[in-house]
Write a structure and sequence with these properties.
Helices cover 46% and strands 6% of the residues. It has 484 residues and is mainly alpha-helical. The protein has three domains: 125 residues, Rossmann fold (3-Layer(aba) Sandwich), CATH 3.40.50; 121 residues, Alpha Horseshoe (Serine Threonine Protein Phosphatase 5, Tetratricopeptide repeat), CATH 1.25.40.80; 176 residues, DNA Cyclobutane Dipyrimidine Photolyase, subunit A, domain 3 (Orthogonal Bundle), CATH 1.10.579. It has a five-stranded parallel sheet with strand order 3-2-1-4-5, with helices on both faces. β1, α1 and β2 form a beta-alpha-beta unit. α5 crosses α11 and α10 runs antiparallel to α11. The longest helix is centred in the middle third of the chain and has 23 residues.
């Protein structure tokens, strides 16, 4: 058996599927020892939330890209499926490894699994080294003056930005020595991508999975939409956001790389980005950090109201209305466009996410958890922290939440943020013939306007599930009932 100074190192990758700015991979490669890189598809360990169907599609492409990147450096990617504790122990034994390295996770269930694996490896005489890679600041570093976790975003943002500057990104490692003879599953055996039917057929036209796609997306954003981001980020009809969220979700790019690219753009005057644009973008990046801060201290963020008073809220059980919302048939164009964008591309613009979530919760009085579950299964960027925290924010039940009585008017939201109706007409093409002044409220169109556009309400496009004014009054009454 090799001596510890020559024995291989196992690098266990999880949501960090990249070769650059990967501290665990860099440390292993820098040791000069053979490196076995492993990914475990763990859908069985207690407490872990299995990825949704859309996430699994992305994972397949991300792993292919990672395998290519490692192969260019002389290493290979070993795939295993099953409980992580068993899979890592098997790889360590088969490789004759004396050390395992990984980048830390922060979901409480994952933390518990990692600690148990570390204890087991230690008992076997195998060293473990872990690194910070997924967050700019780890949750236990960010505390109020009283030493407690933050529950309000703005003080959290100020505190995090006042900490020492996030480290500079690490370069990709050079040539590595792999470990021969390790058995590996194949991606095809895992069946992560659909084929009958292939409901993800349109995703590939929109997204390039993998680290190269992430870097291209970041470069395009810095040179383009970062300039004007503060004003355009709420406009779904234009390219005004980074669309980096799926890449961040799978760790194809790190928050350190994104943070420093934004700062360098401002300092170098690249892409017309102003200080306001960069500050607003960094605040959005820190919202992701805040969401993980919440999840680290509230393990049931996706299933339990952060504010217990919402436990008494009188949610409605309405499967037909839920199904109409899921399939973009509510009768409110901006809502339906968002839900159809999600189904078509695996993504939804952030402003529209708030509108569709508000509609489900406050117009239909359907429990926010039903929407969170749908997003978890259909969003490519379904993140265990941001998805839950954002749904609770809209519901009014979360930390630093929007007040429940803030009820988005879907017509006004459409008119303000999609003024020409371009977004709606793209994803709800049956309304493409309506003029912009009426496209967000076709139920107010004249018979002549509807005939000219070839639209018959109730046939070509649904009538609204509920009247906005009636829904608003009902939602406020439900809130009052909760308070009483």
């Amino acid at each position: 058996m090799p001596t510890p100074t020559l024995a291989p190192i196992v690098v266990w990758l999880r949501d960090d599927l990249r070769v650059s700015d990967n501290p665990a991979l860099a440390a292993a490669a820098g040791s000069g020892r053979p490196v076995a890189v492993v990914y475990v598809l763990d859908q069985e360990s207690p407490g872990l939330r299995p990825p949704g169907a859309a996430s699994l599609w992305w994972l397949a492409g991300s792993l292919r890209a990672l395998a290519r990147g490692l192969g260019e450096r002389g290493a290979s990617l070993t795939l295993r499926r099953g409980p992580a504790a068993r899979a890592i122990a098997e790889v360590v034994a088969q490789a004759g490894a004396a050390e395992v390295m990984w980048n830390r996770r922060y979901e409480p269930a994952a933390v518990a699994i990692d600690r148990a694996i570390e204890a087991d490896l230690f008992a076997r005489g195998v060293a473990v080294r872990t690194f910070q890679a997924a967050l700019l600041a780890e949750p236990d570093r960010v505390r109020t003056k009283a030493g407690k976790p933050f529950g309000v975003f703005t003080p959290f943002l100020r505190h995090l930005l006042a900490l020492s500057a996030p480290r500079a990104p690490l370069p990709a490692p050079g040539p590595m020595r792999g470990v021969d003879g390790l058995a590996s599953d194949t991606l095809d055996d895992w069946g992560l991508e659909p084929n009958a039917p292939d409901w993800a057929a349109g995703f590939g036209a929109v997204w390039t999975r993998g680290e190269a796609g992430a870097q291209q997306k970041l470069g395009d954003f810095v040179d383009g939409a970062l300039g004007g981001y503060a004003a355009a980020r709420d406009r779904p009809d234009v390219v005004g956001t980074s669309r980096l969220s799926p890449h961040l979700r799978f760790g194809e790019i790190s928050p350190f790389q994104v943070f420093h690219a934004a700062l360098l753009a401002r300092e170098a005057g690249r892409g017309r980005a102003t200080a306001q644009d960069v500050d607003k973008f960094i605040a959005e990046l820190v919202w992701r950090e805040f969401s993980y801060h919440l999840l680290a201290h509230h393990p049931d963020l996706a299933t339990k109201n952060y504010q217990p008073r919402f436990d008494a809220f009188p949610w409605r059980d309405d499967p037909d209305a839920l199904r109409a919302w899921q399939h973009g048939k509510t009768g409110y164009p901006i809502v339906d466009a968002g839900m159809r964008e999600l189904w078509t591309t695996g993504y939804m613009h952030n402003r529209v996410r708030m509108v569709v979530a508000s509609f489900l919760i406050k117009h239909l009085l359907i429990d926010w958890r039903a929407g969170e579950r749908w997003f978890w299964d259909t969003l490519l960027d379904a993140d265990p922290a941001s998805n839950a925290a954002s749904w609770q924010w809209v519901a009014g039940s979360g930390a630093d939440a929007a007040p429940y009585f803030r009820i988005f008017n879907p017509m006004l939201q459409g008119e303000k943020f999609d003024p020409d109706g371009a977004y709606v007409k793209r994803f709800v093409p049956e309304l493409a013939g309506l003029p912009a002044k009426i496209v967000h409220k076709p139920f107010d169109a004249t018979p002549i306007e509807l005939r000219s556009a070839g639209v018959t309400l109730g046939k070509d496009y649904p009538v609204p599930l509920v009247d906005h004014k009636v829904a608003r009054e009902r939602a406020l009454a439900a809130l009052a009932q909760t308070r009483s």
